[in-house]
């Protein structure tokens, strides 16, 4: 394992024609190669000018219609991240490359203005950071996410953002006024309250206590904030479910949701390797329970069950979640946001309001 990284394995992409595996030749060369691994792996930023930034969603499992992802790849290094396989499309490893070779969409704000300016564009439920975290460490320097939020603010376009970074606090000056107009909501992911587990599970994300403080800071600023307890990993963070919900509620969260562990494509061998490395005593037990919730398979990609799982154990998790959420006042009531205030970029900043086009439209997000 590499210090500060979720994995040191540069696993080949599923599209690779050749597969390579290191073996010991009897002269100790394999052990020497492991011993000589660098203590860290620097992050490389790959700048990209994209042709479009808005992505549409056709999954019935997700409650937003559009998404904006300023980055591809994520420094947080969460071993369970379902987005890791997307690096294969870049001919980069979903393992180490995913967390060390970050594609920055430097013209994201520019392309968002283009999309909003198109004749016939209709505002819809939009999420920022649905694939990789929009407030990952490189955002402190590049500020691409902030430029996107500035466009959303300028055009009075509703949105939500989901993150496990305290970096979102920097943009409260934009988020709070939008939240006051029913245009913005935030969701903070808390996977565990155990800092030792967090360090190996999501090594470059904010510490659990820091995320709770972020919930409090956002809430105090008047921004509706929910908690995302995902993924639920049997026998790893699953025993903490109720404690996480209670801590988030005490910090000011008002809603919650969770997703059970997903292992698509290359995430499966990466996660199982991590599991054998850090929890060899329970690795087989964890995977047996995962398969119990996935129809006997390691992963289930079917709409309707991919987020929740199926079977008795998935039902039990849902029951525990619902009861705990109700007990702590974290009803899964969606935040009501206003679609009717949108103004195309050429009209933004003028006196135009929702009343120019009729009564405001209400929509709910998450």
Automatic annotation (TrEMBL):
Family annotation (InterPro entries): Elp3/MiaA/NifB-like_rSAM (IPR006638), MJ0683-like (IPR040086), rSAM (IPR007197), rSAM_sf (IPR058240)
Stretches assigned to the Radical SAM core domain: 58-297
Comp. bias regions, Low complexity: 348-359
Keywords for the protein's UniProt record, in alphabetical order: Iron, Iron-sulfur, Metal-binding
Region (Disordered): 346-366
Tagged with keyword NAD: no
Pfam families assigned to the protein according to its UniProt record, in alphabetical order: Radical_SAM
Descriptive protein name: PA0069 family radical SAM protein
Originating species: Ideonella margarita
């Amino acid at each position: 394992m590499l210090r500060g990284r979720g994995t040191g394995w540069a696993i080949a992409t599923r599209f690779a024609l050749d597969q390579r595996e290191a073996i010991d030749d009897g002269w100790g060369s394999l052990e020497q190669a492991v011993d000589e691994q660098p203590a860290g792996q620097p992050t490389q930023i790959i700048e990209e000018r994209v042709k479009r930034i808005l992505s549409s969603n056709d999954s019935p499992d997700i409650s937003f219609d559009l998404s904006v992802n300023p980055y591809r790849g994520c420094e947080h290094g969460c071993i369970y991240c379902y987005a890791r396989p997307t690096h294969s499309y870049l001919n980069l490893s979903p393992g180490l490359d995913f967390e060390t070779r970050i594609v920055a969409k430097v013209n994201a704000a520019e392309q968002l203005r283009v999309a909003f300016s198109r004749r016939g564009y209709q505002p819809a439920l939009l999420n920022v950071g649905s694939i990789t975290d929009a407030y990952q460490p490189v955002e402190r320097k590049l500020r691409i996410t902030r430029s996107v939020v500035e466009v959303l603010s300028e055009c009075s376009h509703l949105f939500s953002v989901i993150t496990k970074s305290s970096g979102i606090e920097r943009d409260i000056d934009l988020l709070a006024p939008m939240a006051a107009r029913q245009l913005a909501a935030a969701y903070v992911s808390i996977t565990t309250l155990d800092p030792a587990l967090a360090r190996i599970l999501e090594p470059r994300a904010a510490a659990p206590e820091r995320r709770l403080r972020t919930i409090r800071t956002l809430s105090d600023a008047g921004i509706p904030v929910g908690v995302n307890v995902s993924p639920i990993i049997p026998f790893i963070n699953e025993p903490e479910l109720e404690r996480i919900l209670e801590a988030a509620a005490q910090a000011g969260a008002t809603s919650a949701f969770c997703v059970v562990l997903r292992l698509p494509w290359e995430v499966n061998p990466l996660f199982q390797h991590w599991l054998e490395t850090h929890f060899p005593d329970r690795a087989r037990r964890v995977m047996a329970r995962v398969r119990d919730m996935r129809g006997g398979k390691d992963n289930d990609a079917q709409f309707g069950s991919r987020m929740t799982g199926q079977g008795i154990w998935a039902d039990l998790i849902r029951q525990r979640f619902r009861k705990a959420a109700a007990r702590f006042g974290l009803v899964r009531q969606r935040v009501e946001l206003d679609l009717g205030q949108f103004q195309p970029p050429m009209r933004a900043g003028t006196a135009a309001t929702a009343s120019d086009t009729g009564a405001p439209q209400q929509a709910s997000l998450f």
